[in-house]
Amino acid sequence: MNLRKKIILVTSIALSLLLGWYLFIKESDYCITFKVKTASGTIFQGIQEWSINQQKSKGDTYSTSEKRNFDYIKQELQSSQNLLEYTWEMKPINDSVTKVIVGIKDLNHSIYNRLTAPFYSTNFKKEQIAKVTDLKNGLEKLLENFKVKIDGEGKSEETFVAYINLKAVLQEKAQNMIKYNEDIVSYLHNNNIKIIGSPYVEIGKWDFEKETLDYNYCFPIDKNTKYIEDKSVKFKTIPAQKGLKATYYGNFRTSDRAWFTLLDYAKTHDIKLENKPLEHFLDNPFNGGNELEWKTEIIIPFASK
């Protein structure tokens, strides 16, 4: 066999293997990539909220088969006409920009889409571009409602507090605080205990997989205060902590967006964190006003060596 025939044979085998991989092994039929100026976890939460809205507005049913670390989601979409699989991968590019890679697979017409999508503007291709564009526009609209500024390394102050322990899924942290706010404030008022500063939220456990929180809703009081034991309201000193710090401006319901910003910053700068955020709310939402002027200082402690 001469050299030319060998080259043709090797090329043919390589092309056959590539075609076989593309048609039968490659996970997605079509990929869409875009960038957003926010943290990967914010996009992760946005995808989940968007999916719920799609179900309410269009009757599409999204079920999540896999998710991890606030940077990957695999979903199955079932509608009257389609059965599709979506994989969403969020990859931080730098401190403020995240690349989103969307893999889409039509479980009923996969091979047809793989053969046509690269060359033709099929209905499948147009529908997926429109769907992902809708999500991207929704994310960018949400970003108008808050701002996050990374302050770098910082330190919190030691603070003596009265607190109530709460548990909630991440998305309901603030609602839970509002629900139990009257309990702790009434106890302090009825026992003549003066609040001497703005409230804190101290995260005791953040379960990434279940997206749940175990946290303390805290009000600073004088450390020499005499108090009566209560089944719900407890007392402790929050120690001073060193960590990565950010300032968040916006509604306290979405202050976790700053957590995700700090996590991405730590990832890109190879900084190990404890993943137990401490939030200090410097404005009272009950007073109303412009939400973009509501200020929260957030610190995530460095991991113990």
Describe this structure in words.
The protein has 305 residues and is an alpha+beta fold. 33% of the residues lie in helices and 34% in strands. The chain has six helices and 13 strands. It has helices at residues 3-25, 40-58, 110-116, 123-142, 173-190, 256-268; strands at 30-36, 61-68, 72-78, 83-92, 98-106, 146-155, 159-169, 200-207, 212-220, 233-238, 242-250, 278-281, 295-301. The strands form two sheets. An eight-stranded antiparallel β-sheet has the order 6-11-13-12-8-9-7-10, covered by helices on one side. A hairpin with a 3-residue loop joins strand 2 (61-68) and strand 3 (72-78). The chain starts with a helix and ends with a strand. Mean pLDDT is 89; it is low at 14-25.
